[in-house]
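Lecture 7 notes: from sequence to structure.

We start with a single chain of 213 residues. Read the sequence below before looking at the structure.
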Amino acid sequence: MFLVGIIPVFTFALGTWQLQRLKWKVNLIDELEEKLQLQPLVLPSKINLSVIPEFVYRKVFLKGKWDHTHALLLAPRVREGVHGVHVVTPLIRENGSTVLVDRGFVSNDFLSTFQREEGEVEVIGMLRTSQLRNAFTPDNKPDDGKWYWADVEAMAMFAGGEAAGVQPVFIEQIFEGHAGESGTRLSRGVPIGRAPTVDLRNSHLSYVITWYV
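Now the structure, written as tokens:
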């Protein structure tokens, strides 16, 4: 009888906790959406790594040359039913440290022939941090050229590390073109960057309903 009586109290407490989490997540998403509306930052020559978490999802403007020698492929990835990879290439900035840029998606048809721009390029992207991996994500194997998740520290070391002026700073390049342009890029092996949106998962409302009902 004691257990029967305490179950409603327990579920109500869980529902209340999830409601608080829901409010926190909504506020966080709103805050990140506001960041995306700000003008792109020009990163300093030497980036203070300790403040990067405060600037996640902020747009940034970069200028430099690609280091294709140290490009790596994050796999497997899927875009609109097409299987492929994300191309991550170090960008040697003209007046600063080298940073890592996820240029975006290319299909498996272009694993060795995707577009490799030469000369100076300009990039608009958003600051990110290392991706969270789940229990099913394999370990990266840099020596074998196999990368499954964005481990920024490890990718920076692969690109030469501090000795080569590479900082563990990760930017996802933004693509704001229309569907037709996206299709053209896909058919030509030109990396397709990410949309400028906040992609945080928010399941707390369903949990609130579960525990309260």
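Confidence is low (pLDDT under 50) at residues 202-212. Keep this in mind for problem set 3.
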